[in-house]
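In response to reviewer comment 3 from the previous cycle, which asked for concrete evidence that the modeling workflow produces usable outputs, we include below a single protein chain processed end to end. The sequence was submitted unchanged, and the resulting structure tokens are shown without manual editing.
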Amino acid sequence: MRQGPDPADAAHKPALRAIPPGLHFVSTPIGAARDITLRALDVLAGADVLVAEDTRTLRHLMEIHGIPLNGRPLIAYHDHSGEGQLQRLVGLLAEGRSLAYASEAGTPLISDPGFELARAVAAAGLPMTAAPGPCAAICALTLSGLPSDRFFFAGFPPSAQGARRSFLEDLAGVQATLILYESPKRLAALLAEMAATLGGARQAVVCRELTKRFEEVLRGDLATLAAEVAAREVKGEIVVLVDRAAPTEATEDSIGAALDAALQTMSVKDAATFVSQTLGVSRKIAYRIALDRSQG
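The workflow returned the following structure tokens.
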């Protein structure tokens, strides 16, 4: 008996139905082309106008998935596009067109020039939505093994040493897993600076070439990772993650200072609760100090 094709192996055929007017942000693969979502393919197939950080990359992705351009405009929008291109896109949206915007890789607006477009569209009161999907920062956090209940995406650190040190000093006490992007050429310098500024014993993870053929995840403390990376050549897209800072033990003086600030706008009860949660101290202790200070 002849068997039919396995539905699981059947390729998704993007819908040809019209896409609603408005700006549609489309997340694109950070490596493996099959990581794109079915909804993203539908938007790319049906939007009136296609906009991309890199038109060559988007055209290639569409070719892989069998999505024809069919004479639709394919417009570049990147860091150097200028105000004229921005206003052109907003004008198309104002006419009732549907625009699909795709970053070069990953989720639009995450270290991506689409931010200015989103702000302009929001200011104009025009419709805007997103087809979510791949994001290097979230993929790296998932693989890192570091706490994920609270994280802080810091983007690309400054390349100049002095500015980078100040940047890291500002992040040193953040009670969240830190996530940064970095060039492979500057990775060794960044890790060395992190070890010096944040402490060499602080746990960290370096993710390289996520979802690609040579994907690699390095784990260890900052001092160890800095030495390992300094001794080898590193290539590809890099995400660096650092465990949160160890919490500092609150003193009566620091509790009192925090309560003084909170009591400016809160009741004694609310101030005690707020400071207790913020500094991780007993609410009874915070309430006693707050009561004393409010009556003093």
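The first helix runs from residue 38 to 46. We consider this sufficient to address the reviewer's concern, and the full set will be provided in the supplementary archive.
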